[in-house]
């Protein structure tokens, strides 16, 4: 039987080093063995035949772009009772990864978030919360880029610079849009644009509602900052090196952005 393959790492109380990278069947309660100090599931390769038994995201990135064709408002609803109604009526579903860190934040025990991300792509959500790298939630840049590609792309080659994971073929299963959310504001826009690119959702909660003039000016400030960064990127400017200057230039023509820059200038994570 063509079962998923695993990459597992083991380590002591303070370190973690890879010791196994080969195909094995998923075991039972190995994580509870007394003989093990720690054990971490880094990845699993899902066979194409198994992937084809799932519908995955019903829309996919391109279809969603064609339907919306603009910046749209969104909100998170914790009630599970209306999920079926939403799906039946064609609404986009956001999968929030709250509580994931209970399972995956330990570097030498548990499992990596990419394992959860693969399961969530199969489950059929349209958006998956992916952290921000630059906001209030933990997440290393290269590792985050690794599972962001895993959510969006159809074929992912293993890349040790972005973590310990297998090559994965999604055999045309629709992609999921990563959602960057958690402590982000206008000064983060250059980094977010560079890290997540075009096929992403940038979700500003407090970064919008915290604007001193209200919600609408907060939304305007974020939109102006985003468009300035996208234009600068398309012109070939280095967002990492010139990000702050790009935001300052744009704020000269947008009082809403200028006010937001003043509010958030001291916020660091």
UniProtKB/TrEMBL annotation:
<dbReference type="GO" id="GO:0000287">
    <property type="term" value="F:magnesium ion binding"/>
</dbReference>
<keyword id="KW-0456">Lyase</keyword>
<keyword id="KW-0120">Carbon dioxide fixation</keyword>
<keyword id="KW-0601">Photorespiration</keyword>
<dbReference type="InterPro" id="IPR036422">
    <property type="entry name" value="RuBisCO_lsu_N_sf"/>
</dbReference>
<dbReference type="GO" id="GO:0004497">
    <property type="term" value="F:monooxygenase activity"/>
</dbReference>
<comment type="similarity">
    <text>Belongs to the RuBisCO large chain family. Type I subfamily.</text>
</comment>
<dbReference type="Pfam" id="PF00016">
    <property type="entry name" value="RuBisCO_large"/>
</dbReference>
<keyword id="KW-0934">Plastid</keyword>
<dbReference type="InterPro" id="IPR036376">
    <property type="entry name" value="RuBisCO_lsu_C_sf"/>
</dbReference>
<dbReference type="GO" id="GO:0016984">
    <property type="term" value="F:ribulose-bisphosphate carboxylase activity"/>
</dbReference>
<keyword id="KW-0113">Calvin cycle</keyword>
<keyword id="KW-0503">Monooxygenase</keyword>
<feature type="domain" description="Ribulose bisphosphate carboxylase large subunit C-terminal">
    <location>
        <begin position="84"/>
        <end position="264"/>
    </location>
</feature>
<dbReference type="GO" id="GO:0009536">
    <property type="term" value="C:plastid"/>
</dbReference>
<dbReference type="GO" id="GO:0019253">
    <property type="term" value="P:reductive pentose-phosphate cycle"/>
</dbReference>
<protein>
    <recommendedName>
        <fullName>Ribulose bisphosphate carboxylase large chain</fullName>
        <ecNumber>4.1.1.39</ecNumber>
    </recommendedName>
</protein>
<dbReference type="GO" id="GO:0009853">
    <property type="term" value="P:photorespiration"/>
</dbReference>
<keyword id="KW-0560">Oxidoreductase</keyword>
<dbReference type="InterPro" id="IPR000685">
    <property type="entry name" value="RuBisCO_lsu_C"/>
</dbReference>
<dbReference type="InterPro" id="IPR033966">
    <property type="entry name" value="RuBisCO"/>
</dbReference>
